[in-house]
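Following up on my earlier thread - several people asked me to post the actual chain instead of describing it. Fair enough. Here it is, all 124 residues.
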Amino acid sequence: MKLFSFPVATLEKAIHKRVLSLPSPHREWFTERWQQKPYKKAFVENKALPLVTLVAKGKTMDDAEFAELLGEWDVTFYEAEEEVLRPLIQGDGLLQLMQKNLPPERAQALLAKLTQRRGGETPA
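Reply from S.P.:
Thanks for posting it. Predicted structure:
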């Protein structure tokens, strides 16, 4: 997926702001991992940036193109990650303008992607 050129520092700031309001035990789980450079880099590059790209480009793509990109995005989210990223879809904080014209069915598809678990497993 060709990533949207969204400033990583702004995205990290939005994630950090969200982490501060996470309920326990999600805050502790995510904070512990977020402090590890490899996890932080992988989370931003493989989960957060593709999500921002789908939100930003999802407003102008046709349905087939959006479905194809969503299908290519092969990731599994832990519950804490889901809680961190949900506001990026729902229009909270710094990124509100990006979600403004996102069709509701695409927002629902992205939310469903966050909660999708492989083989019925529930990541801790």
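The chain has a mean pLDDT of 81. That should answer part of your original question.
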